[in-house]
Structure formats: C-alpha cells, structure tokens
Known about the structure:
The chain is an alpha+beta fold. It has helices at residues 25-32, 50-55, 70-86, 88-93, 145-161, 183-192, and strands at 7-9, 56-60, 65-69, 94-98, 120-127, 132-134, 142-144, 165-167, 178-181.
Amino acid sequence: MAAYSKRVPAPDPDSINTRCHAARVSTMTAVLGAPKYPLSKDCNDAKASDKVKALQQTRSVGPFRVTGIRPFLEVLARTFALVKAKNPDLYAAVGTAGVLCVRYVRGSTSTPSNHSWGTALDVTMLNPKTGEHELDDRGDGKVQVGTLELYKYFKEQAFASGEWCFWGAGFPTEDGMHFEASDELIRMWKAQGKV
C-alpha cells in the first residue's frame, strides 16, 4: 500500500478550488440556520440548527460512516464510489475524523466551523508503518499525499455533477485534511430545494 500519510508541500492555493469558494458563515446561516450559541471548541451536536437536525443522517459513504446533512453525504458517497473504482488503495487508506461537529473554527471564539452544519469532512490517512490513521497537521504548509490524491476525485466528481467542494489546503491557514461543500454548492442546493 502506498504511503498516503506522507507529507508533501501543499499546492499553490491559486491552483486549487478554481471554480469555487469556501462556504461563508452568512450563506450557511441564511440557508441552514444558525447553530445554538454559545459554542465552544468542543463538539456539541445538540447545538445544531433545527434545519440541520431535519436534514441530518448517519450513513456509510463508502469507506466509513459519518453524520452530516443528506446532500453532503450524497456528494461524499459519489466521490468515494469514484475513488473505490479508480484507486482501491487510496479507498482502503482513507479514514475520517468526522463531519458534523457543532463548534467554533479552531483558534476562534466567534466563528462557527462549517462542520457545525454537517457540510465539512476531515479525513485521515492510514500510515502503513504504524497501521494507524493520521490527521494532517493544520498550518504546516504540507498536505498528506492521500489528501492531494483525494482532491483530484472531488474535482472529477464536481466536473461530472456540478457539485463543487472546497479543499482546505486553499485556506489562508492550510488545512489539508478538510473538504467542505463550497459556497456555490450550498446556494445551488437551496435553489434546487435540497435544503
């Protein structure tokens, strides 16, 4: 099995997420409702908005089970079906640190994380030497080989469906393990009546 947990330099942010933007809190709140404040740095899914609770599901998206909102889980399931068909080694190596997690963005005491709406996924990659799944270190300017590869499948799935996700490697503080529904995708779901 390839060393998908190995760290490599993060791509130039201008070379990724070229057709989408990170979901704005204003968009998330307008479309999916505000979480119940106050939040903290720890997950408290009971503080999810009523709209998120109504759309919430726990299901398998391929290599793992997660809890999030239905339309996002559908995107994940299609993306991981593509990964399984084209790169079974990557499919076997990917794990998760979760989707729905109602809390503030790491390091903030005012901005809710997009995990609060069940529209963001943090992935882990299997280290073949230790047999353990590892998180990518946030803000170190590096990404795991597996997340770089996984981004290609999110992008391919987006070309096929028009459902664009945003990769956290393009955030001002790089977060290579983070994939989220883009601002454009959230607004598209609203226009289609999915949320």
